[in-house]
Amino acid sequence: MKFFYFLLLTIFPVIGMSQEISFSYDIYNSYENYREPSLNCRRIKHADILPLIEKLRHNSKFVVHKLGESVEKRELFLLKIGTGKTKIFLWSQMHGDESTATMALFDIFNFFSANDNLNGIREKILSEATLYFLPMVNPDGAEIFQRRNIWEIDLNRDASRLITPEADILMNTFDTLKADFGFNLHDQSTKYSVGRNYKQATISFLAPAFNEQKDLSQNREKAIKLIGMMNQILQQFIPGHVAKYSDDYEPRAFGDTFQKKGTSTILIESGGWKDDIEKQFVRKINFIGMMSAFLSIANNTYVEMPTDNYDAVPMNDKFLFDLLLTNILVKKNDQHIPVDVAINVTEQNLDSSSAFTSFGLIEDIGDLSIFHGIDEMDCSGLTLREAKVYAKEVETEKEFSEINFQKLVEDGIGYLPVQKTLLHSKNRSHLHEKFPVCFVDDADYQFKLKIGEQPAFYLYKNDTPKYVVLGGKIIRLHNTK
Ligand SMILES: [Zn+2]
């Protein structure tokens, strides 16, 4: 795959993009100057962005305009900056649990508020373009960190009927602006791979189709060229981690509808990056992608980009698991057979949706040699032995805090029976941070190597435990016991 990208860059050399490239390195290196520090995790709420918008009201560079309110009366705002003739409209988080780009938008606001050695570029962008931003289209969904709005309607399937106030506001804003470019900002599964590759699709792009035939119009072609340009910029920082989102036409979606109405529309999906649970690096990559696009639009350099560059970006695919353990010896019918075991980590909101817990589930078993793991280990020569269940049900948070997890592992225990109310308490997340033990609501629970089960097992070399697999993690054991 490395060779493929080498080839890509050789066939499609960077044309007239030297300023965009040096700018992208400048903001990559000085990103901390622009990063909005009050937003630092995915579960941001409307209340977190309100004081930042209030501050921009008093910033003479920005015009802040209230557009309307969500179902639960949270205000939606349009922020405008610049005086140029090309209109660029960006909206984020129409899915409440997709906040990466919202954070990046506030980094962009900080960039344009700053006064430093990049003033020339700021002035260039703002004299050629006018930028309009609608951050957090779905604040009620964000409040409980769920995709849909509070009526359980997917706003991105409401672009035609417009029965939700949020979709209605977005469509009205779009129709009023008639922007030249539209940026539709989302998050996608962190488990998407770039084609059949082992690399996570950290950013996926799409120039949505405007009909079933996926025809090319002048406007769609502009979006395709701009994506080709952003791809080339981002390959410098996340080589091989850029993919393309499915381009099936969806008439109920905003991107497809806006493309149809004549705006060059670009979908940006923020995916995963290893160990970046809160997606702060992905946020930075978003910031760089969008800023480079603004400069390229201002300089009109993207028009030189061959459309083949877009075509060559691999599609999103599903060849990744969070943890893939290969060749584990498992006892079946008095003999040991080698199997691969794939585990995915699932996230669950807790009481207050500011907290969450995550746990692993067995996703697949058998010959998984065509797949990859974000974490992967060859377990040849290691034999599986199931973890035991703790003898007593945990009933109070005090009992929780008194458990010696180190000792649990030494005793071969991987499952902790926990009373139901505690299972959903937000303190569960603190506990999980301490130790990724599996919680069960039944003291008679018994581990089975079965799809859908929570994995807790030991890997033995002869009679010595070498590793323990707990939830979605594999931990090396140093103790020889
Ligand atoms: Zn989305």
The CATH topology of the largest domain turns out to be: Aminopeptidase
Which secondary-structure class do the elements indicate?
alpha/beta
Helical fraction: 25-40%
Strand residue percentage: 25-35%
Structural domain count:
2
Description:
With 481 residues, the chain is α/β, with parallel strands linked by helices. The protein folds into 2 domains: 2-317, Zn peptidases (Aminopeptidase, 3-Layer(aba) Sandwich), CATH 3.40.630; 320-476, Urease, subunit C, domain 1. It is built from 15 helices and 21 strands. It has an 8-stranded mixed sheet with strand order 1-2-4-3-5-9-7-8, sandwiched between helices. It has a 4-stranded mixed sheet with strand order 13-12-11-14. The relative contact order is 0.11. Residues 1-13 have low confidence and may be disordered. The structure holds zinc ion. Zinc ion binds at residues 95, 98, 186.
Task: Annotate the secondary structure layout.
Elements: H1 2-11, H2 18-29, H3 46-57, E1 62-69, E2 75-82, E3 86-92, H4 100-113, H5 119-128, E4 129-134, H6 139-143, H7 165-177, E5 181-187, E6 193-194, E7 203-206, H8 218-235, E8 242-244, H9 254-260, E9 264-270, H10 280-299, H11 308-311, E10 316-317, E11 320-332, E12 335-349, E13 356-366, E14 372-378, E15 383-386, E16 388-389, H12 397-402, H13 405-410, E17 413-417, H14 420-423, H15 427-434, E18 438-440, E19 456-461, E20 464-470, E21 473-476
Parallel strand pairs: 3-4, 3-5, 5-9, 7-8, 11-14, 16-17, 17-18
Antiparallel strand pairs: 1-2, 2-4, 6-10, 7-9, 11-12, 12-13, 15-19, 19-20, 20-21
